[in-house]
Amino acid sequence: MKHLLASTPALAVLLGFATASAFAEEQTAWRLFVSDHAQPIVHAIDMETGQKIDTFNVRAPTSLYRSASGRTVFAVQGKGDVISVLSSGISFGDHGDHGDISMEAPKLLDVSFEGKKPSHFVDHEGDIALFFDGEGKTRVTREADILEGKPAIREVTTDAPHHGVAIALGDHVFVSEPNLEKPDELPIGIRVVDRSGASVGGLHDCPDLHGEASSGNLVAVACAKGLLITSTGTGAPAINLLPYADLPEGKSTTLVGGRGLQYFLGNYGPSAVVLIDPKSDDAFRLIELPTRRVHFTVDPVRAKFAYVFTEDGQLHRIDVVAGKVDASLKLTEPYSMDGHWSDPRPRIAVAGDRIVVSDPLKGVLHTVDATTFTPTEEISVEGKPFNLVAVGGSGEAH
Amino acid sequence: MLRTIGFASLMSVITLTSLGTTSASAEPLKVVASFSIIGDFARNVGGDRIELTTLVGPDGDAHVYEPSPADAVTMSKANVVLVNGLQFEGFLQRLVEASATKASVVELTKGVLPIKMKQGHEHTAEAGSDDHNHGDLDPHAFQSIANARIYVKNIADAFCAADATGCDSYKANAEVYTAKLDAADAEVKVAVAAIPEDKRIVITSHDAFGYFENAYGLTFLAPEGISTEAEASAADVAALISQVRGDKASAIFLENITNPRLIEQISSETGVKVGGTLYSDALSKADGPAATYIDMMKTNIATIKGAILGS
């Protein structure tokens, strides 16, 4: 087990030496950002050494989201009425026949977004939409402007505070429509607004709206009876409902978008996930799990795989082509899904060739070799390590 | 001006694992074509001996295509996978990996003399979202009919290797189709000859016509680079507008696979009317004017000629 704050282990020294000697050529770097369930802190960990790089203080215990480029990490503090932004310190430049990697220290940027009860972060090609439930308001900005320290903010308002979401798609913003009769309940649809704030077309019905993801040029929003699917690209975005069709009674409320393959992975009932391939005649494939589901994510590197953690302490690998669980691995003691939805339970992130699973009650991050799907080292983290995001990749260092 | 440089030695064959010869196949050969133009070639060579699936269909953009799990299933069952190569299909490697296909993956540009992409369109986008680049070679070799003949020969060879019983049929089909390509090639050359030499500069959305330019003597300028994924810089657009205003470009065209906004902007700022739609990286739908490769080449030159001579 590796311990944060411990002296640099011999292995890391060797790794460091090897890295340094090859510095002018290919370099791989992954950083893990870990929030604590109870404390307002975010750790940055170097996944090549297992060592902590830094710890950043924020206002409240936070959820973490990474931008698509990986240059920024957003700390959404629902109970702190603020969203803080960290620079991951890793960036890439694409030069056609090769990519460059640039490294600097991660840091908490002097940019934050204040507002009541921030809830959802959505990045679409660098256009970032931040939704604040307590105001029913979206703040839209661009990652490039944030990194320059001068974020231009465009606000999109709705008629009432509600638990909503917004997606910035070029000239348009998709924003949830509150249930005005019962504002405490989930939104009833999606409205498209243009840059002037004017509605484009009518309301797209989506009762019980909760859950959004993008995969390639498709954006999906989960509703009571199916998914609203938007295809972006040439012309104005079109929105169509993809009904759940032959699935048993239920709905998705959380979606993750496939990377490398175009699909969505959603929850469906407490003990299943559903693979959604909007372009296929067989759009929904339900995958039953042995026990209740805790968390799930997709593998951004190995397009064929996604991962689900269940309350019996197992990590399951899903083959999204075959549509089944093809391997399972016991990693932690059981984490019951009884109790509050936000109790500390494991979360999954994929950092290059490693799958990382937080074990908040043990203060440990479990790592799994993504190629062999076997456990590797453990990294101890003080407190209750909870939310995880991984940033990194390979490139030429100059 | 674009230079033609031999880079045959740099060409990479992505995968060449062989499923083995199907000597007496009662089943049709299962063929996957990466995009619509290759699908048309395969249909002409394979006839009814093949069962064809085309991944990126009519009006689809292979540069930014996102394969689905269903595509991976199709790929896993294929006997032969036909691709363009020269990194045209950015999605190919991950689809091959995800599908674990044992099919022969055949690059049809093998034997083509590749040309370099035009200067000034180096990628500057941030990486990190997807590994995706096109190297420095122009992959749109199919825009020359002479190269299409090479594609067709490579397809016949691939089908023969996978289905020896049908080899004579594949070769005969290829011969018939190649004769049609020759006729189309001659037609395009005649049409270009009717365009005055000082009127042979045109503008399209992205650099898809380098091989057309080399083969037939027109010059194509584009605000976007080799891939539609790379956004045009403001400087690129401004330079093009300046050229059009200087009467150095005779016509501007939309493409069937790209967002028309940039071209419409150039048209609006220069007053030069858009001359129509060119089919660059994909065929039209069946009821369109470019539903086959030969129709595509004929339609494109007819559109160009009509716009220039009418301007």
UniProtKB/TrEMBL annotation, chain A:
<dbReference type="InterPro" id="IPR011044">
    <property type="entry name" value="Quino_amine_DH_bsu"/>
</dbReference>
<dbReference type="InterPro" id="IPR047697">
    <property type="entry name" value="AztD-like"/>
</dbReference>
<protein>
    <recommendedName>
        <fullName>Zinc transport system substrate-binding protein</fullName>
    </recommendedName>
</protein>
<keyword id="KW-0732">Signal</keyword>
<dbReference type="InterPro" id="IPR015943">
    <property type="entry name" value="WD40/YVTN_repeat-like_dom_sf"/>
</dbReference>
<feature type="signal peptide">
    <location>
        <begin position="1"/>
        <end position="24"/>
    </location>
</feature>
From TrEMBL, chain B:
<dbReference type="InterPro" id="IPR050492">
    <property type="entry name" value="Bact_metal-bind_prot9"/>
</dbReference>
<feature type="signal peptide">
    <location>
        <begin position="1"/>
        <end position="26"/>
    </location>
</feature>
<dbReference type="InterPro" id="IPR006128">
    <property type="entry name" value="Lipoprotein_PsaA-like"/>
</dbReference>
<protein>
    <submittedName>
        <fullName>Zinc/manganese transport system substrate-binding protein</fullName>
    </submittedName>
</protein>
<dbReference type="InterPro" id="IPR006127">
    <property type="entry name" value="ZnuA-like"/>
</dbReference>
<dbReference type="Pfam" id="PF01297">
    <property type="entry name" value="ZnuA"/>
</dbReference>
<dbReference type="InterPro" id="IPR047701">
    <property type="entry name" value="AztC-like"/>
</dbReference>
<keyword id="KW-0479">Metal-binding</keyword>
<comment type="similarity">
    <text>Belongs to the bacterial solute-binding protein 9 family.</text>
</comment>
<keyword id="KW-0732">Signal</keyword>
<keyword id="KW-0813">Transport</keyword>
<dbReference type="InterPro" id="IPR006129">
    <property type="entry name" value="AdhesinB"/>
</dbReference>
<feature type="region of interest" description="Disordered">
    <location>
        <begin position="119"/>
        <end position="138"/>
    </location>
</feature>
